[in-house]
Design a protein that fits this description.
Strand content: 5-15%
Structural class: mainly alpha
Shape: elongated
Strand order of the largest sheet: 1-2
Number of strands: 2
Helix content: 40-55%
C-alpha cells in the first residue's frame, strides 16, 4: 500500500513539473514571438513586452529588457503587456512593418503550441 501511495505521489509530482514546464514555455515563447514580430523604429516598443504575475503591469522600461528572475509556474496567472503610449496603434496596423491584428494572430497560435508541448512532455514521461 505504501508503495502504491509513493507511485501516486511521484505521478502527481511529475504532472506538476510538466504543467510548470508547459506554462513557462508558452509564456516565454509568446513574449519572444511578440518581440520578434514587433515593428521597430527605436526599439522601445519591442523592449516593452513585459511579463507580470497575477496582475497586469502597466509600467514601461527604457532600453532592452533582460531575462526575468520570475519563476513561472502553472498555479499563477501571467500577463504579457506592452504599455508604451502607441502600443495599441501598432497592434492595429499603424506601422507598415506589421499588419493589423498581428498580436491576435500570435495569441491565436497559443492553444496549438500548448498542445504540441503537452504531447512532447507526455511522450517523454
Amino acid at each position: 500500500m505504501a508503495n502504491d501511495r509513493q507511485q501516486i505521489q511521484n505521478i502527481i509530482k511529475k504532472m506538476k513539473q510538466n504543467a510548470d514546464i508547459l506554462v513557462s514555455t508558452i509564456v516565454l515563447e509568446t513574449q519572444a514571438k511578440l518581440k520578434e514580430e514587433s515593428p521597430v523604429d527605436t526599439g522601445r516598443f519591442r523592449a516593452n513586452w513585459l511579463i507580470s504575475e497575477n496582475e497586469i503591469d502597466d509600467s514601461t522600461v527604457e532600453g532592452e529588457t533582460g531575462s526575468y528572475a520570475l519563476e513561472i509556474t502553472a498555479d499563477k496567472n501571467y500577463y504579457i503587456t506592452n504599455s508604451v503610449p502607441y502600443a495599441q496603434r501598432l497592434a492595429e496596423g499603424w506601422s507598415q512593418q506589421a499588419p493589423a491584428g498581428w498580436v491576435e494572430l500570435i495569441a491565436a497560435g497559443i492553444p496549438a503550441r500548448a498542445k504540441q508541448i503537452a504531447e512532447a512532455l507526455n511522450r517523454n514521461a
